Automatic annotation (TrEMBL):
Biological processes per GO annotation: rRNA 3'-end processing
Domain OB: 31-93
Organism field: candidate division WWE3 bacterium CG10_big_fil_rev_8_21_14_0_10_32_10
UniProt KW Lipid metabolism keyword: no
Signal peptide interval: none
UniProt keywords, alphabetically: Hydrolase
Name of protein: HD domain-containing protein
Length: 320
C-alpha cells in the first residue's frame, strides 16, 4: 500500500497518490465567508487532520466524498496549532485497497483476553452476578461485537478489539483496588468494569473501512444503550437493590455530569470504576498520541488537546 503510514508522516512531507480512508468530512465557512472542508484521514496506525481550500474543490471530488471511502491523496503536510495537517490538492475515490491497511487491531489476541476475563468472572463470590455475566455473554451476536468494537472513535483504544483491551486493563486495576480497599464488593466492581461500555457495541459500527458513530449512538449514546442492553437480562427474582447498584455504575461511570453522566458515582464501586476508567482511557490517549511518531528535538510529542500537554518520550540511553 503506502510507503509511509500516518504514524510515519512528518511536517514537510509531500504526498502523491497516497491511500487513506475518510474518517470525517465536513464543509465549513470561515470568518470571511470563505468555504472550505475539514477532513479526518485514517489508516491502521492512526488519524490525521486535513483541509481542502476552495481552489482545490474540483480536484478533490468534494461532491462525491463520503465517510468510509478510501481515497488517493496528493498534498503537503504543514502544521497548525503545533499539530500536523495535510493541505489537500487532489483526492480521488479508489476501489483498489486492502482493508487490513485501514482497520487497526490491538496487539493482543481477542480470544485470549476474553478467556482471561472469564477466568476472573469464574472467581467471583456473588453467584447471582457471575451467572448474570455469563448469561449476557450467551448472546452470540453481542459477544461477537463485544470482541470487535473499539472503545472509542478517535481518542483511546480506537482499534478493532479496543473495548476488550480497555476492559482487561480496568479489571487488572480493579484487582489492585480490591487489595488496597478491602471494603470494595469486587463482584459488583467486576460487573461494572465488564459492562460499563457495553453500549459501545450499538454506538459504534463499521462503515466501509472506518469505525463511526451510528444513529442510535448519536440519539441515545453508549450509557443509555448500555442500560437498555443489560437491564433486559436481569431475572425477575434478582435482588432489586443489587440490580440498581449495578445499573448505577453504567450510568455514572463518566464520573461527572459535565462529562456525560446523568448522575455522579454514589457507591464505592461506582467511584472506583469511574477512576480506573479514566486511568485506562488517559493512558490509552497517551499511547494514541505517541503512535503518531512525531517528536521535536527535545523528544516531546505533539500537543494532545485531550490531555492538555505534550509528553517526553522515553529513549534508551547507555549508562555513563
Amino acid at each position: 500500500m503506502n510507503k509511509l503510514y500516518i504514524k510515519d508522516l512528518k511536517v514537510g512531507d509531500v504526498l502523491v497518490n497516497h491511500k487513506f480512508a475518510i474518517k470525517d468530512f465536513a464543509k465549513k465557512v470561515g470568518k470571511t465567508n470563505n468555504e472550505y472542508y475539514t477532513v479526518v484521514l485514517s489508516d491502521k496506525t492512526g488519524f490525521i487532520d486535513a483541509k481542502i481550500w476552495s481552489n482545490s474543490f474540483a480536484e478533490c471530488s468534494v461532491d462525491q466524498i463520503k465517510i468510509g471511502n478510501v481515497v488517493n491523496v496528493t498534498g503537503k503536510i504543514d502544521e497548525y496549532n503545533s499539530t500536523p495537517q495535510i493541505i489537500l490538492e487532489k483526492m480521488i475515490i479508489t476501489e483498489e485497497y486492502n482493508a487490513g491497511d485501514f482497520l487497526s487491531e490491538g496487539t493482543r489476541d481477542a480470544n485470549e483476553i476474553f478467556n482471561s476475563i472469564l477466568e476472573t468472572v469464574d472467581l467471583l463470590e456473588d453467584t447471582d452476578i457471575k451467572n448474570l455475566i455469563l448469561d449476557i455473554f450467551k448472546n452470540e451476536d453481542l459477544l461477537k461485537k463485544y470482541k470487535q468494537v473499539p472503545a472509542g472513535e478517535f481518542v483511546h483504544h480506537s482499534f478493532v478489539g479496543g473495548l476488550l483491551e480497555h476492559v482487561y486493563e480496568m479489571l487488572e486495576f480493579a484487582k489492585t483496588a480490591k487489595i488496597l480497599y478491602p471494603d470494595i464488593n469486587f463482584s459488583e466492581l467486576a460487573f461494572g468494569v465488564i459492562f460499563h461500555d457495553i453500549g459501545k457495541i450499538e454506538e459504534l459500527g463499521v462503515n466501509g473501512v472506518v469505525m463511526e458513530r451510528t444513529l442510535p449512538g448519536y440519539l441515545i449514546g453508549h450509557l443509555g444503550q448500555g442500560l437498555l442492553l443489560v437491564n433486559k437480562h436481569f431475572p425477575e427474582n434478582f435482588d432489586v437493590t443489587k440490580k440498581n447498584r449495578l445499573l448505577h455504575m453504567i450510568l455514572s461511570h463518566h464520573g461527572e455530569k459535565d462529562k456525560g453522566s446523568p448522575i455522579q458515582p454514589m457507591t464505592l464501586e461506582a467511584l472506583v470504576l469511574s477512576e480506573i476508567d479514566t486511568l485506562s482511557s488517559r493512558v490509552g490517549i497517551y499511547y494514541t498520541n505517541l503512535s503518531k511518531g512525531e517528536t521535536d528535538e527535545k523528544g516531546l510529542t505533539a500537543y494532545s488537546k485531550y490531555l492538555g500537554a505534550s509528553f517526553l518520550v522515553h529513549k534508551d540511553t547507555e549508562e555513563p
